[in-house]
Write a structure and sequence with these properties.
By secondary structure, this protein is an all-alpha fold. Helices cover 73% and strands 0% of the residues. It has 10 helices and no strands. Helix 1 crosses helix 7 (140-215). Residues 22-31 have a biased composition (Basic and acidic residues).
Length: 273
Amino acid sequence: LEEQVAEVQKYYSTINDQVNNAKDKSQEKHVIGTKRSRQGGSSKEANSSNTMKEVMHQFSTIFHQITQHRWAWPFMDPVDVEGLGLSDYYQIIEKPMDFGTIKRKMDAKDGSGYKNVRQIYSDVTLVFKNAMKYNDEKTDIHIMAKTLREKFEKKWLQLLPKVAQAESEKEEARALLKAKLAEEAAYANMTKDIRHALCDVDEQLKNLKEMVIKKCRKLSTHEKLALKKNLNRLNGDNLLKAMAIIHEIDPTFQHDAPQVDLDLDCQVYNATL
């Protein structure tokens, strides 16, 4: 039990030190200014978040370049199925997609947006696939979609290593967080068990004390007189120590009063003395 208590104390002491260090570093960054803050945190969670933001920013740049191409206009809005009389469009195309819809979803702040860059990539490629699937190879729309897709895929391949790095860091950060939560839960359970064990020990000590008091014989008249003489012989410091010992057994005993009455017939005092 003693080893478990020491282990729990060490764990929570380490946690407190880490929290205090994090606060100190945060305050230091605030004082030094923007230049220091741009260096970013050393934690895996911070690295993962920064890499993800960088990837999303680079992908947004690619998306902007594609949508600004002179051949991108047919794909900016949903296909006007009724206006163009495309009665078979929904029979051929299962999931319509366009750049305008993608842009709105990228900018969404209500939680309905994309969760990661691969989801955006999938929808962008879907725009080209739908156009190439519905329109014949020799039509302008098919050629425009194919050309833009090739440009987009080339840029995507350049970004892909960074995407893989961001995903790896995110997975590593997630695994680290899971391990930390498991460790915290384990020590929380250990603390709970220790608390129960200490309560049991206190109860056992209380019962043992009561048992000892009950079994302890009373002082004889001769022993009481001898004890009284010995107490009177004690100097001030030693007498105070003796009174303090009795107070530990009986908290109601006023050991620090100017004058005290000690009942030598009390069974509690008999056991102590």
